[in-house]
Amino acid sequence: MSTKKPTITVLYFGAARTAIGVHSETVSLTITDDKGFPLSDLGLVLCKLHEGRGLKDVLNVSQWSVDLEMVEDPEKRFLVGGEEVAVIPPFKRLNPATTQTGHRWMQSMPSTLNANSLFQYTHSTTGFAPCFLRDLAKMTTTNVGGSRYYWLGNVPLVVVRVVAIIVGVDVWEQKSRILLDDGTALVQGSYRHVQELVDESDEQSKSQVGKSSRELPKRKQVRYVPRPVPATGTAVIVLGKPDGQRMKIDELTPCSYMEEAAHIIRVVDLHKTKYSQPFTLPESTSSGPHNMVPLAIPMTPPRRSREDGEDSEQDHDWTPRAKRHRRDDVELETPRPRQTGARAHSPAESVSSVASSAHSALLSPTKYLVPPLFPASTRSHLPSSTIQPLSSETSFGVSSNKASTETGLNTMARLRHPARRKGKDLNVDMFRLYVQYYIHTVHAHAHAQALAKRFHASSSSASTKGANCPPRRMETGGSSSRNGKLKTREQKERELFASDEERRGFALGYLRRVPELQEMAIRVVNQQRKTMRTTKRKKDEDVAETKRKDKEKAHDTRKYVKRLFIETTRTLYQQGAIVLHTGGARKWSREEAEWVNSLRIWKLKGDEDMSQSMDMSSRTLDISSTTLGDTTRVSGIAEGTDMVLSDLDEEEESYIPTSVDVLAQPVLLALRDALKRAKFNNAADARDRNAIAYKVQGVSEEDILESLHAMDDTWARVWDVGETLVYLENAGLTYLYKPGAWGVL
């Protein structure tokens, strides 16, 4: 029999995962027998792969499961390839009173540490211990003064701070079970719902003893309202209490992925400098008052007095003070029951107030909801010295373009104004960079404005449908909306994706009418002529004859400028920076020129004052009122040359940049198609297809690109979809199943 080398997927749990530091891996097997590879020999293969990590001791006491079935006798089970094998170690809880490790930690406690100071330290913000999820299994417990404390190394704690990614949510009646993953372990957290006291139905009370409902005391019952939970795949900051290998979550706050990287660096440093060193109580805790932080919502109704002008408790529905969870600039608050009286607010006011604060976060560039300046596939061609970041003083706050101010596009890098470019920098590559920059920047601002309109439209429609309806049961894998409910996949796609009718492309005639680009193109053509003339002089040719020929060709400037624009768009298309657009094209007019000028996309000299910048821009870009047909003629930029342009062609091809918002919808379709194809790649017959279908949960970027190229020739030159997948992940449509494998929610 010939030797075969199939692959299997090995999943690690508990101590096995802690020992090697990975959740899963793909292992190649060497099969020389018709029966297959014996499961009993798999442990030797894994120990060789992870030699010196103590995996052998864990495997000796572990159990095996193959395709979700426990294996009683590994010697009788053979692997043929494609299986999913899980290593399941036994669960053991350490007892600090009987282990030497517990005695060592107890001995490291300072003699001055009493129960009162220990309680103050562990229940304060100073005592919150940043750690990894795998550290939860290593903690031990002690009882001091009747309170239970955990020990991470030599440091006592009650509350831990973890930065992880949500990989699953299961909503129960009184709590939500959230599956967290920080790259070191997979831990299940318990997130309790908010309790509310609501009036019980008075139908039974009205029929008793003939009394009216006003004469009978109102009875209340407890209702559990789920707290808003971020979408699957969102990075979150978790504050909670350890519970063995699980966790009781007190606070859950969305954060950026950069916060996760900073947390890892901080925890690694704390393990070296604090957790492994003898514990000393901070001076702020041992002497003086301390900032105590409550981590639970009080469930006792507060007493209200009539001296403050408020009604008694029986006249109002009591609602505990709900926690607020911040997602960047958005405040998500748990739903409250409808209030009565003068203090009640209309649904439109409640939704509009949250929508105004959510606007900037929804369009935050850090979440890729505003596309980056250039796609990664073409970013390598850009010279870094030409991009200058915008200073904090030059804010868009004084601009008339309100959408640019709210969307945070003032953080985008800007290029120097073309008029500030020296002659030695003027070449074809620099001109192509400026054309690409203009297309991407103008499209980014237009996309941000369209996204803002769709957001406000969805917020206003939500307010008219009754924001005070009782909350429905939350679903797994959705993102929270403004009123605490979860958005469906169709709603998220409708808000995120723009149709071809909403987008406007950039035609060649439009680009030739942009004053800055046209002026730069003329300067590039003149610089090329100057370079050619200098080269001819070096060859000792007749200077006078050269000047005469240059004067004869001066009337061809318009032809060379048009040729430069054509070659530039062709090169950008071949590089994948732009693609053909089937929708409408932008038209250059006075309104378009004023709007682009208000965006201040160019870096002017100094940028000291907005008025100076606008004056300089208006002097440099003189837009005449003379029109040709329905377009605006540009004058005052090339004196002595005939730069009169013909009318715009309505059927001229237009282009659109390959930014993440443009690629989002086709990449999502390509991802779904790749997942469908991957389910049947390793199948031999219909029975095997059914068995393998559930295993495929993620595909690589190469498979997505293959489906994208096969789907439409428009995307044949797109070779990078990494940023687009992150863009869809932050929108709650995709998730990273494992490194290099993407799935659809």
From TrEMBL:
Residues 327-336, 538-554 have a biased composition (Basic and acidic residues). Residues 344-353 have a biased composition (Low complexity). Residues 279-289 have a biased composition (Polar residues). Residues 198-221, 279-353, 379-403, 460-493, 529-554 are annotated as: Disordered. It comes from the Eukaryota. CDD domains: Ubl_MoaD. This is Uncharacterized protein. It comes from Serendipita indica (strain DSM 11827).
